[in-house]
Amino acid sequence: MGRRADNNGTEYKPRVPAPWTxxxxxxxLKSGLSQFWAVLSRGNIVNMWQRIFALxxxxxxxxxxxxxxxxxxxxxxxxxxxxxxxxxxxDWTAAKTWPIVLFLHGSEERGxxxxxxxxxxxxxxVRNHAGHFPAIVVMPQCRLKVSWEAPAMExxxxxxxxxxxxxxxxxxxxxxxxxxxxGGYGTWLIGARHPTRFAALVVVCGGIQWPAPHKIRxxxxxxxxxDKVAGIPVWIFHGSADRNVxxxxxxxxxxLLRGREGEVRYTEYKGVGHESWDxxxxxxxxxxxxxxHRLRNSDQGR
Length: 302
Known about the structure:
The protein has about 300 residues and is of the alpha/beta class. The chain is built from nine helices and eight strands.
């Protein structure tokens, strides 16, 4: 696996305290404040400024603990290098294991710049509300003119997941998979191919057949996937007015999973079109539901 510099041009080293972690920021702040107090103590307003900066210190510490940081990485599979992004909580530490989420983007974010996929869907939710997602989030990028079902794409996303779990101490019992649109299709597919890897799935406006039929005439493709993922908790989201991927795709999967006594939640947004992912990833209950699941030891390798 190769590594790329982060946005500051520095390479992240897990054993060295990074300046964006809570400890790093508080260390720099402490040094600056000691010099500031030396100057302020000469005047008669020190008490007022002490209160102000005590509040500032508390706010900065809280922000540092929750702000996510997006790091650039590369992975090489079968001689081809792929760029991906990993978001890391501001209070990350190697002293414990962390939940890890594999996020699959939609068709519009395909390419090889290694950046587009970090500006949509779950990535935006993490950037705007990092405190809701205290996890490592792995964001691979699908190449142009292919989808996540291509063998090379599957290989690179699993390699990126493995590399990120190793580097950032990801918890194998708290590994999750999600995606929207084309990534929703990918979530069903990868979940079915690796049913013992993920503790839960979140599928947003995805499906099984493409193009998605408005009326299900053949249940076999849906049943094949449902049989494989029935043991994985799933939360499905879809807009009822989706013209890109018919809502019948998600309705069918929810029906089949319930028939197999699977743990499934289904949320349908009335009157919402295809772009339902921002609403879905900002659902208040989603983080609690997602991170509340973990694999049992007996599940792994089953």
